[in-house]
Design a protein that fits this description.
441 residues; alpha/beta; Rossmann fold; seven-stranded mixed beta sheet; four-stranded mixed beta sheet; 16 helices
């Protein structure tokens, strides 16, 4: 630990303050705004470019304060996403070893931090939050607030998301059916995921599919084009609706795909042969989830199948993903352990037929997204500004690590609405157990 005596530098003073909170010596190299450094010389560098970073972290001594300092550039990690990933891994690994969790300053630590901040000229009013932070009002999960939350996350622009996603614009966990093959592309894995879903749903020409929270339409378009079904997709994102509408025209699918800007609770069509909802249930909220599950059930004919792909969390993890994600990426999001989701579905009337864990696939998916984003980083800055670009770099780096370490997962759930006699009309040995799916010609 750095000693506060002799030729003690600003970096030494900061290290002495931080090390007790981190449960040991600094896991990263710390560089203060005056160029002084402390910590291991072979570690990623955490650079405080401004005294304001320290002030921000005094006001928010947790994940959110660090994230805000990074977003504004008051704190930087030279070396881009790779260095940020290495630094986060070191910090999280040390926190686990030492048992350090959410930072809670004692009265003595608060006084010591305030005195150090005064000595370093960092005291002052609470810094303004970055402009990229979500600003929602109204009743939680009302239709108006849900529209605002979705707009914050998804309506940055279709052009922005094209800097991250594969050409199908599939914004959900892919399925690497040749997982050990490093040559497998993200586009291949997303097609394999779409085929897996269509196969589990038992789609055949002439069937009707309801795609709840259809995103940029990757599943709706794929199911219509390759499986001959008629699809109604609903989204509350104007940008997504615009993208899908253009794709429907370009692919000449107007007789098979309809997409609406519509809340899933407002769909009034007769029951469908199949229903899909791919990573949309996270946005429903804890109180609304029973209604969501019942709505999915009500939209199915007897013997109709549901595929629900959804992120899950450990029981000790933050339901919304933590303060950073809740403030900057997906406000009002709520995840739960997969066992709770299954309970909601069963109470709605579904019979659960299969649960496929895909956590490792999400690690690779997010890493592929991050690689694509980093290759277009300057384009992203020009399009949405430095702060938003840094938000997304931090989000993708942290997301890949969260899935890799098992704090979050993702599961593909297959359920069925049995008929009045309890008949599911499903194969006893499902075809997707036999091997990877291939797209129909």
């Amino acid at each position: 630990m750095a000693r506060l005596s002799g030729r003690t530098t600003n970096a030494d003073r900061l290290a002495a303050l931080l090390e007790p909170l981190l449960g040991g010596q600094l896991p990263v190299r710390l560089q203060a705004w005056d160029g002084s450094q402390a910590g291991p010389v072979d570690a990623p560098v955490l650079r405080l470019t401004s005294r304001r970073a320290l002030r921000r972290m005094l006001w928010e001594p947790n994940e959110l304060g660090l994230a805000q300092a990074y977003i504004t550039g008051e704190l930087d990690v030279p070396g881009g996403a790779a260095a940020l990933d290495a630094g986060l891994r070191r910090v999280w690994q040390q926190s686990r070893r030492s048992g350090a969790g959410q930072v809670r300053l004692s009265a003595g630590q608060k006084l010591r931090a305030a005195l150090l901040a005064a000595r370093l000229g960092a005291l002052g009013r609470r810094p303004t939050v970055p402009s990229a932070q979500a600003k929602l009002t109204g009743t939680m999960h009302s239709r108006a607030r849900d529209r605002a939350a979705i707009a914050h996350h998804y309506d940055l622009s279709n052009e922005f998301y094209s800097l991250i996603l594969d050409p199908s614009m599939a914004y959900s966990c892919a399925y690497y059916d040749s997982f050990g093959d490093p040559r497998a592309s993200l586009a291949d894995a997303q097609r394999a995921k779409l085929d897996l879903i269509c196969t589990k749903l038992g789609l055949r020409p002439g069937m009707r599919l309801l795609d709840v929270g259809c995103g940029w339409g990757s599943l709706s378009l794929h199911a219509a084009e390759h499986y001959g079904v008629r699809v109604l997709g609903v989204t509350i994102s104007a940008q997504q609706h615009e993208f899908i509408t253009k794709q429907i025209a370009a692919r000449n699918l107007g007789d098979r795909v309809e997409v609406r800007v519509q809340d899933y609770r407002a769909v009034s069509e007769p029951a469908f042969d199949a229903v899909s909802s791919i990573e949309m249930g996270e946005h429903v909220g804890a109180d609304n989830y029973p209604s969501y599950a019942h709505t999915l059930f009500a939209h199915l004919k007897p013997q109709g199948r549901l595929v629900l792909q959804q992120m899950s969390r450990r029981s000790d993890a933050a339901p919304g993903g933590g303060p950073f994600i809740e403030s900057y990426i997906a406000p009002d999001m709520h995840m739960r352990p997969v066992s709770e989701t299954l309970g909601f579905l069963e109470r709605a009337g579904f019979e659960i037929r299969d649960v496929q864990a895909m956590r490792e696939h999400y690690v690779r998916t997010v890493q592929d997204w991050l690689d694509t984003f980093e290759s277009h980083y300057s384009d992203a800055v020009a399009m949405v500004g430095e702060e938003v670009a840094r938000v997304w770099r931090l989000y993708l780096v942290g997301g890949a690590l969260t899935f890799a370490e098992g704090r979050m997962g993702v599961d593909q759930i297959l359920a069925v609405r049995t008929d009045s006699l309890g008949v599911a009309d499903m194969p006893a040995t499902p075809e997707w157990f036999a091997g990877p799916c291939t797209t129909s010609p």
